[in-house]
Structure formats: C-alpha cells, structure tokens
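Table S2 (continued). Query chain:
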Amino acid sequence: MPSSLIRGFGGPQLYLALERLMQRIAVELHLEPLDVIRRNLIPAQKFPYRTAAGALYDSGDYLRAVEIAAGDGRIEELKRRRDAARAAGRIYGIGFSAIVEPAMSNMGYLSTVMTAAARDRAGPKNGAVSMANVEYRSARRRHRHRRCHRTGPEPRDGAGARSCPSSSAFRPTMLKWSSNSTPPRTSGPIAAGTYSSRFASGTAVAATWAAVQMRDKLKGIGAKQLNVLPDDVELAGGKIRSRSNPDNALPFGRVAGTSHWSPVMLPEAMAPALSETGVWTPPELEPPTHDDRINTSFTYGFVFDMCGVEIDPVTYQVRIDRYVSMHDAGRILNETIADGQIRGAFAQGVAAALYEEFSYNEEGAFLSGTFADYLVPTVSEIPDVEILHYESPSPFTPLGAKGLAEGNCMSTPVCIANAIADALGISDVTLPATPRRIHALLEGGK
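Corresponding output:
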C-alpha cells in the first residue's frame, strides 16, 4: 500500500510491539500492568543514560512522571469505572503505554546504511545544524528568520519569541517572524526543516544565540549614547537604559536606528548592520561507531498514557471513556503551543487506532479510495484528553527543552489496543480496531 513519512513515523509500529508485549507479560504472570511498567523504567539517578544501541537519553524521572499521572485518584477512578461497567454487564478495559520520544535527529544515522569501511573512506557524517537570523529593520520592528516552516498558526508572543532573552525589550507588535527552508538572501543548513520535533531542541537555541548577539550589540550602542559601560545597560520595557539609573534611558527605536541613520555614532570597529545569525549544533550528536552504535537524536522526552475504553455490544464501536497523557518534554517554552501539538498528535493516534485504514479485498481491489470509506475522524469523534506535564530540563541544551509534537502518535494507538485487549480478554489486537474487526473477535470469526 502507499506509504510516506508522517508524524512520529516508525514509532507507532515499534511501540505497538513493545507495549503490547508489556501488557502480555502482565497478563501471563498475573501482575498489574502498571507494576510491570514501573519495574522496567530507567531510574532517575541513571541519567544521562546510554542505551545498548548508542542513544544517550539526556534526562528524566520516568517513575515520578508515572506516579503523578496515576495520582490524584486517576487510576482509582479508572478502576471504579471499569468495575461498575463490568458489574452492569458492559465491556470495559484499561490500557497503558510508556514511550520515549526522540527529537532533533542526528543526520549521521543515515550513514549506517554503509559499511564501517565505506564510512571511513567517505568521512564522518553526524550532527544537526540549526540556524536563525535576527535583524532590525525600519518601522521599529525586529525581524526574526528561522530555517524551518511553521506547521500551524503561531502567535507573535510564541515559543520562538519566549526563547530569546532580549524579548523583554519589545512589545509583541514589534516582533515579526518569517520562516523558509532556503531563504533567498542567506544560505541555510542542509538539514533544515520542522521534522523530528527539532524546533525546541535546536532552532529555538539558534534563535537565542542570535538574540544574545543582537542584545550585546545594542548594549554597546546604547552604552556610548548613555555614557555608561555596556555592563550597566539593560533592555526592558521597550527602552535601553542604565541599570543603575533607570531614568537614564532612550527608546529602543532611537538606539537601534543609530546603525542606519547615524553610523558615525557607533562604537569603534562596530559594523553598522543590525543583523545577527545564531548557529547551533550539539556535540552529543556524534558519528556512528564501527559496530553501528549511534546517538540517533539529541533529546529524549517521555510519554506515559492511560485510558479506559468501552465497547458497545450492539454496534461494536469502541468508545474512549477517559484518556490521560503525561509528557516530560523538559522545559516547556509555551504551554499553549505545546498542548496544541499534543492534541493534534492525539487525534492522529486515535485515528490510527480506530478509524484510518487502507482496505483491500481478497482480489486486491482497493476498498477505501474515498472519504466515504477511508474514515478520518472529525472533532466529534475525538474525545477530550487530560494533558499533564512533568519537566526534567535537558542538561544538553541551553533552554532545557525537548521535542513533544509526535509522542501521542506513538503512545496512543497501543494504549487503546491494550485497553481493548483488557476489555475483551484477548491476546492479539489488530489496528485499526474497527467495528467489523471487533465483531469478528466477539463472534469467533476471522
């Protein structure tokens, strides 16, 4: 069937196998599934943690995140709902899943298709480069350019703006973002883009470096006009002012405009243009070893999900009764944007678990070629999800942030599958769990 890259690609299939196995271990050994998960989590004191395949998990307290998600009566409530439903003769099950969410790919993993000898001849391939440009233009506006496209609307006071330390000097209307993978006026890195949830881990860091450079340049210009030392200058409230004497201040636009209108007033040897480029490539992304071990990503978040589902005995429809999703993505730059990304991934995870499917008959004819047959859930079919955050800042990135936009595409399908297995008391679940498949399971058919 046709296939292509999509949010979290590869992860849903991997975790469907791993987390179904965890649930089967619990069933076969007569253990609580949540206890099996707890026993197999990496202890907090082991981070940074090097895996057998070479990945370097940067930070986390997985057990603490699980306990928070299960706490406040959430797990008890799920069990009460299950017990009440089963006492009334209804079909109800509880599912769990725990995954690691990588972000900002190490491009060196692509070279593992070559032999070690061929890699030696070709030279090392590794890393990931992020770039961002900050420049001051006319009309009192600072312009930020990043080497990645937006995948949705972004408020002016968004994650990018909040990641930059000099943002306090500007009102939101003074900031303008643009984004291209290959801007016409400057060159960009080969690996630019929004794939691999790389904005928080990489692009935001590059934007920070560019903003720091711009801030230091503005402080130097302002110090000369205020007749103070650069260390005594601060940017706040739309002004550039003396830290020790806040009344000694000038509007931001006047100081920044010096570079355009009065370059002779600039400090000695300072270039007049207010344009700075930040570049970030983390040293942790090393080339693969001779035995193909490699740290494939820069940061690694953690997701723990639990849900309760009920299956209608007449229509065989699976209904998600309650869903809780805990995310450790390091420091959250903007919770509104983060939660929006999580909800989008959750919707796609529900679609994969219960709706979307390429269907063929025994002769190979394609049966789901229209949206009347290929079921894409709408807002009416997507239930609410309780989103929780636990922050363990990454020690490898200056902002402490990790990616989080893809996690529920990987955790949600198997969490629902485990709940269906618990509800029906079966050992195998094929996704999507459509009413046709549920009917066949209940009736003993193929």
